[in-house]
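Appendix B. Chain record.
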Amino acid sequence: MGHREDLLEGAKRCLLAKGFVRTTARDIVKESGTNLASIGYHYGSKDALLAEAYLSLVGDLSDAFEGEAADGIEAEPGSIERFREVWSNIIGTMRGPGSMWRLSMEIVAMGDQLPAVRDHLAAQQRDAERALVSLFMGVPQEDVPDETLDTLGRFYTTLMTGLIAQWNFDPERAPDAGALTEGLCQVIEATTRK
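Structure tokens predicted for this chain:
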């Protein structure tokens, strides 16, 4: 690996161990075996490197969103069953101790103190919405229209953010995929009554 990759891997380890606010440039250099000048040269700033490291950690988890089945998600695209299956897979990534999703809550809570990280991640939000819509609806990401991102994409990211918050704050009471799906069914039923 070159310095760029070493820095990214070192920053990922630092984020998981210390979070955004407590990770220093010197921590990253020590963990990666590189030097301080490498951060600026390859990433522009420590905050830009940390944002890239966070996105890489999320990317590492995205395969888990599709589950263990050989062909990925088995339920019909757009179905209630697929909703349950995908959320079950996503929630599975939140259950472990030291889940990297706590980093998301740190950005929400401390975003004004980490403006470069927040801005970098906000710029990537559209891609996250596109990936979620693709996953739930079973269509290629490039076929998801922008209008769908403005509605369904934001709906899924809002659910994701809420789940992350609940699983970090009170994992004993956080909903599983079954409860989340039942809640959606109750909303649908209530809106279709005459």
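Further analysis of this model is presented in Appendix C.
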